[in-house]
Amino acid sequence: MSNLLFYNAAILTIDPEYRTYENGFICIQGDRIEAIGPSQAMTDLGDFAAYRKIDCGGKIIMPGMINTHCHMSMMVFRSLADDVPDRLRRYLFPLEARAMNRELAVTGARYAMAELLLGGVTTVYDAYYFEDDIAEAVAASGMRGVLSETVMNTPTPSAAQPYGGIPYTRNFVKKWQGHPRVMPAVNCHALYTNDTEHLRECHRIAADHDVTMCMHVAEMDFEQQKCRDEFGLTPVGYLHQIGILDERFLAAHAINVDDQDIDILADCGVNVSYNAGSNAKSAKGVAPVAKMMAKGIPVSLGTDGPMSGNTIDIVTQLSLVGKIQKLFQNDRSLFPPREILRMATINGAKALRMDHLVGSLERGKRADMVIFETDSVNMSPIYDPSAAIVYSANPSNVWATIVDGEILMENRKLLTLNFESAKQDLLRSCQKIEAIAKTLDREIATHN
Question: What angle do CA 248, 252, 254 make, to 5 degrees?
Answer without folding.
Answer: 110
